[in-house]
Specification:
alpha/beta; 12 strands; globular
C-alpha cells in the first residue's frame, strides 16, 4: 500500500481545518441567537417565533426583532428586543453575532454587569441601547473602543463607579446617556461630546 508523505497529510489536515472554520462562521450567528433565547426568561413568549429546528439558510432572519444583511444569509446586523420583558443576565453568547451594528435590549430586566470585552466582540456596533434595565457594576472603560458608535444609552440602570474618562474618545457619538445610575464624575473635556446629547 502506498504511504502518503508527511506534507500531503499536513495539507489534508489544513483543508479539514479550513472547512471547519468556514462552517463555524456560518453557524455563529445562529448560535448567538440561540444563546439569547436559552439564557433569558421570556414570560411574554416574545421569542416563541425563534424556532431553531428549521435550520435553513436565512431562517433566523425571519425571527421577531432580528434584521440580517439579506434574507438569504444568516448574518445578523441588528437585534431589537425593546420592552420584551426578558429576564436574566446580559446574554454573553451575543458576542457570536460579530457583524452586528445595532443592539437594543432596553426596557427589559437584564441584570449583572456589562461584559468588559463587548467592544472587542462586537466591533461594528453603531448603536447600543441597554437603558431601563437592572444592570449593575462599573461601565467598562473598553467601551471607548466602539470606534463606529453613534448611540450609547446606558441610562436608568444600577451602574456604579466613575464614568470612564475614556468615553470622551468616542469621536462619532451623537446620543449618549448615563442618567439615573449611581455613577460619579463626568466626561473629560466639556467639548469632548456635544453637551446637548449628554443626559445625566
Amino acid at each position: 500500500m502506498e504511504r502518503k508523505s508527511i506534507p500531503s497529510l499536513c495539507l489534508g489536515m489544513l483543508g479539514i481545518l479550513a472547512c471547519l472554520t468556514i462552517s463555524n462562521g456560518l453557524h455563529s450567528d445562529t448560535y448567538c441567537l440561540r444563546s439569547i433565547k436559552e439564557s433569558l426568561a421570556d414570560p411574554g413568549h416574545v421569542l416563541s417565533t425563534w424556532d431553531f429546528r428549521k435550520n435553513t439558510e436565512g431562517f433566523i432572519c425571519r425571527f421577531v426583532g432580528v434584521r440580517c444583511s439579506n434574507n438569504q444569509e444568516n448574518l445578523v446586523l441588528a437585534v431589537s428586543l425593546r420592552d420584551a420583558g426578558l429576564i436574566g443576565p446580559f446574554p454573553i453568547g451575543i458576542r457570536n453575532c460579530t457583524a452586528m451594528q445595532d443592539l437594543d435590549l432596553s426596557g427589559n430586566y437584564l441584570s449583572g454587569s456589562i461584559p468588559s470585552n463587548l467592544a472587542y466582540d462586537l466591533p461594528y456596533l453603531v448603536s447600543l441601547n441597554l437603558s431601563n434595565n437592572n444592570l449593575s457594576g462599573p461601565i467598562p472603560p473598553s467601551i471607548a473602543y466602539f470606534v463606529f458608535i453613534n448611540v450609547l444609552r446606558l441610562d436608568n440602570n444600577q451602574l456604579t463607579g466613575r464614568i470612564p474618562l475614556e468615553l470622551s474618545q468616542l469621536d462619532h457619538i451623537v446620543e449618549f446617556s448615563v442618567a439615573n445610575n449611581r455613577l460619579l464624575g463626568f466626561l473629560g473635556d466639556p467639548g469632548s461630546i456635544p453637551t446637548c446629547y449628554i443626559w445625566g
